[in-house]
Amino acid sequence: MAPDGRTSRPPRTSVWLAERPAPKRTRAVAQEQPGGLDRERITAATVRLLDANGMAKFSMRRLAAELGVTAMSVYWYVDSKDDLMELALDSVEGELTLPDLDDEDADWREQLRQLTSEYRRMLVSHPWVSQMIGQYLNVGPKAMAFTNAAQGVMRRAGLPADRLTGALAAVFQFVYGFGTIEANWNGRCAAAGISTDAYYRQIYAKVEGRPEYADSLALREAGGSGSVEEMRQQDFEVALDLLIAGIEAMRSRP
User: Fold this and answer.
1) Could you give the CA distance from residue 188 to residue 208 in angstroms, rounded to a whole number?
2) How far apart are CA 148 and CA 159, in angstroms?
3) Whole-prediction pTM value?
4) Cα 55 to Cα 96: distance, rounded to the nearest angstrom
5) What domains does the chain contain, in order, with CATH numbers?
6) For 50-99, how does the pLDDT look when each residue is reduced to its tens digit (9 = 90+)?
7) Average pLDDT of 144-172?
8) CA 112, CA 106: separation in Å to the nearest integer?
9) Could you give the CA distance from residue 150 to residue 132 in angstroms, rounded to a whole number?
């Protein structure tokens, strides 16, 4: 038995691959459950807690307290914490603004830039997402809508079919790495009570004038002297332009 009295069972692969039968609603649950409690409300509360405290501090007990119910009430809608993580992950993917694939005049490059910017924003706004991608099977309806949009844009790029998935991997694994590092940096600065710009200035002051770092400093200075956010944006755009150029070059390769 699990600590909460529920029968322990091995973890399943994904909430999206299991048809969950409607559980029997006991009188006790019905009496103590507040009006309006449903899976959507539970998922929204899960996202709020993950945004505030991260995965390490998330628990079903804290979620129940946030909702003003007992943990057993939550389990009436979901079977496990893993189910909630998958539902939360799909929920934030629903925040992404997708390009209009029916717009025949749209430039696939701009649509790809839109998708990558949205994906990066999600990773930075919800730092816990980076930990979940790859750990949980991300095939919920909102995630699949994003995947279909990305595939549609890449098809418009004119790549042969056997190269589409590789191109998507190159682009979105780059964005994943970029956004994850950005989110981690922001989180570290927030925990230390310092702005990202102030932290950068401290680092710069530590290495400035040291000959062993002269080439690195010259390279960074050549890239501009704006804020950390401005430098990040410039680096992101240049890197993405390089990937787009590679896709264009690959179209004509036999």
Assistant:
1) 22
2) 16
3) 0.85
4) 21
5) 15-93 (1.10.10.60), 108-251 (1.10.357.10)
6) 999 999 999 999 999 999 999 888 988 998 899 999 999 999 999 999 99
7) 95
8) 11
9) 20
The encoded tokens of residue 17 equal 């691959």
Residue whose pair of structure tokens reads 């004038």 in the numeric block: 209
Cα–Cα distance between 235 and 7 in angstroms, integer?
A: 51
Burial of residue 143 (CB within 10 Å: 0-12, 13-18, 19+) is buried
**High-pLDDT (> 70) share of the chain, %:** 86
Cβ-proximal residues to 10 (8 Å cutoff; 6+ apart), any chain = none
Phi/psi-derived region of residue 54, left when phi > 0, alpha when psi is between -120 and 50, beta in every other case: left
**Distance (Å) of CA 168 to CA 65, 116, 173, 177:** 41, 11, 8, 14
Overall residue count recorded for the chain in this entry:
254
Closest CA to 80 of 37, 18, 142, 26: 18
Closest listed residue to residue 43, CA positions, set 101, 84, 92: 84
